[in-house]
């Protein structure tokens, strides 16, 4: 029954928990990279599943690991499907961890990685609401365990070639990009008949306030959207999602290989 889920290369060849404790012990740890994906279970409008963020992350990982050879010392950990989604807490189907809970989980996994002899951990995030906390945790794990910790949000600049300028700037949730990606990975979980369009209405005189970046104001989804989305989901297509997913997974693979070879000591000149 589980053959279909676990038959892909990412699970058959690179999924660390499929190994025995002896096999894990025998992995050459000097250049090994562990990959921990953290997603979210939260509303994405009327047309997308609440599993969208985690689904996208897992789909990208399946594509990414197809690019590796058996010689590549990169190991996939089970995804953490829940994230810090308090900005969507008023919407049914949103299941959020508190900041303290997510911090504890990520720290404990980092400590376990170090005890097992690993030196490198990539925290791969596919939910924007996790960003600040995970950036902080990466440094805390580095300090606490000595691990080299990497942080990455899957992205490709190529995506801008296939979406509007407005989408690129303000399509941050449940819009063209995410809908297209889910259409590619799991089309029957998307109801395009309910796809909507809504963008943040910005005051004309606003110059110093943004949703993200160095000039920032705190917001909940209900503060910026009536529909629960920010973007134009009506423009989404499976074909567009395929192009986005291929571009992003290509960049992910390159980044992981670079991380597996990285030594932090090289940052200080002899």
Automatic annotation (TrEMBL):
Tell me the GO molecular function terms: ATP binding; hydrolase activity, acting on carbon-nitrogen (but not peptide) bonds, in linear amides; metal ion binding
Q: Which cofactor does it need?
A: Zn(2+)
Check the record and name the InterPro entries matching this protein.
Creatininase-like_sf, Creatininase/forma_Hydrolase
Sorted UniProt keywords: ATP-binding, Hydrolase, Metal-binding, Nucleotide-binding, Zinc
Q: Tell me one GO biological process term.
A: riboflavin biosynthetic process
The similarity comment for this entry is:
Belongs to the creatininase superfamily.
* PANTHER family xref list: 2-AMINO-5-FORMYLAMINO-6-RIBOSYLAMINOPYRIMIDIN-4(3H)-ONE 5'-MONOPHOSPHATE DEFORMYLASE (PTHR35005:SF1), 3-DEHYDRO-SCYLLO-INOSOSE HYDROLASE (PTHR35005)
What is the name of the protein in this document? Creatinine amidohydrolase/NitT/TauT family transport system ATP-binding protein
Its source organism is Sinobaca qinghaiensis
Q: What is the lineage of its organism?
A: Bacteria, Bacillati, Bacillota, Bacilli, Bacillales
């Amino acid at each position: 029954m589980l053959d279909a889920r676990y038959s892909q290369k990412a699970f058959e060849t690179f999924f660390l928990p499929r190994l025995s404790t002896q096999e894990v012990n025998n992995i050459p740890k000097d250049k090994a990279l562990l990959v921990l994906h953290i997603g979210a279970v939260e509303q994405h409008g009327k047309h997308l599943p609440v599993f969208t963020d985690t689904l996208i992350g897992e789909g990208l990982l399946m594509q990414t690991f197809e690019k590796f050879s058996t010689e590549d010392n990169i190991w996939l950990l089970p995804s953490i499907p829940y994230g810090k989604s308090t900005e969507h807490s008023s919407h049914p189907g949103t299941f959020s961890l508190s900041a303290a809970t997510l911090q504890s989980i990520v720290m404990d996994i980092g400590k376990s990685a170090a005890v097992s002899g690993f030196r490198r951990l990539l925290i791969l995030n596919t939910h924007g609401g996790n960003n600040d906390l995970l950036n902080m945790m990466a440094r805390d794990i580095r300090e606490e365990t000595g691990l080299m910790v990497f942080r990455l949000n899957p992205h490709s600049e190529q995506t801008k070639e296939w979406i509007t300028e407005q989408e690129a700037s303000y399509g941050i949730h449940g819009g063209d990009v995410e809908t297209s990606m889910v259409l590619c990975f799991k089309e029957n979980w998307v109801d395009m008949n309910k796809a909507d369009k809504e963008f943040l209405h910005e005051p004309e005189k606003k110059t110093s306030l943004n949703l993200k970046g160095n000039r920032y104001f705190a917001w909940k989804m209900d503060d910026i959207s009536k529909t629960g989305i920010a973007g134009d989901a009506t423009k989404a297509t499976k074909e567009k999602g395929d192009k986005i997913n291929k571009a992003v997974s290509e960049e992910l693979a390159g980044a992981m290989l670079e991380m597996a070879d990285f030594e932090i000591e090289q940052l200080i000149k002899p």
